[in-house]
Amino acid sequence: MITLRYVGKTPYRGVDGSTGRLVVAWPGDRVAVSESKAQQLLRDFPEAWEVVERRTKQMGRPKRRRMKRPQRDK
């Protein structure tokens, strides 16, 4: 995933074809998109997007950690 900052003047709305997620950005917003969507946005709208951060690991749902149950005295 790559984080991009939208520096365009009007709102942007599109779809990341790799993830199926809706991409909505207002001027100044940061969005995380797939590598292929980032390349497409930077190629098609070079004046409207800038790279903030590149991540090699896929962003997903954070792992859920369960709390340990207290032991009961018998």
Would you kindly provide a written description of the structure presented here, covering whatever features stand out?
With 74 residues, the chain is an alpha+beta fold. It has one domain. It contains one helix and five strands. The protein has one helix spanning 35-44, and strands at 2-6, 12-15, 22-25, 30-33, 49-54. The strands form two sheets. A three-stranded antiparallel β-sheet has the order 4-1-5. A two-stranded antiparallel sheet has the order 2-3. Strand 2 (12-15) and strand 3 (22-25) form a beta hairpin. The longest helix has 10 residues, at 35-44.
The assigned structural class equals alpha+beta
What is the end-to-end distance? 51 Å
Largest sheet: 3 strands, antiparallel
The radius of gyration computed from the alpha-carbon positions, rounded to a whole number of angstroms, is 18 Å
Low-confidence stretches: none
Number of strands: 5
Q: What is the number of domains?
A: 1
Q: What's the number of helices? A: 1
**Oligomeric state of the chains?**
single chain
Q: Please trace the helix and strand order, writing H or E for each element.
A: EEEEHE
The percentage helix is: 10-25%
Query: Which term fits the overall shape?
Result: elongated
